[in-house]
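pasting for ref
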Amino acid sequence: MAISRISSATNNGTTVTIGTHAANDLIILCAYNDGANTLPTLPSGWFGLIGTSGSSTAVTIGWKLAASASETSGTWTNADGLIAVVYRSATGKMNIPKVLSSNSATSATQTFGAQISGTFDENASDLWLAAFITNRNSSNALDTTVPTGFSNVTSTTDSSTWQIALHDTNATRTTAWTSTNITVTTSNFYRTVTMALLEIAHPSTSSSSYRPVNIRGGADQ
């Protein structure tokens, strides 16, 4: 069984109601702060995947493995908009996210960076790609301006200043992703974060000995 996307949800504010999920599902959340360089805070129970800021924008992306079917987002202080997405693996496996690239610029050309070497881990039984994009302009229709190979999952906007969107491949990748651009009408400032979703074997989270490891190389927080 390959990776499957179960649900997604958005909200303009500091909290979001996470969509349908079950124990052991992977939940990824992107929090965007418009008009300031202050990173949205990572609530207790979430692992930090990436935090990037500058030019009056800030993005924090975090993840967790659901312990039940009733997980909550917690409060992402300083966030103006949130996107949460849920992915599921086969029984006895779990999904782990890994950042491939992070790009930012003020031009209308917006880059989804190339897949780095080593992403096709021999221990992974499946691999998807997913990407968040944020833009300090609300008129670019990021939900319909999608790089080739991706499909839009969901998006949110404040209708006057900013947009956030989530895209994924909605399928297994068997070849390396190369750097791909989209062109929008205009942009005060944008950020893109491209991620790999790796499906690997794992012990049940019901075991007291199981503790997830931060994929960026550090121990869990």
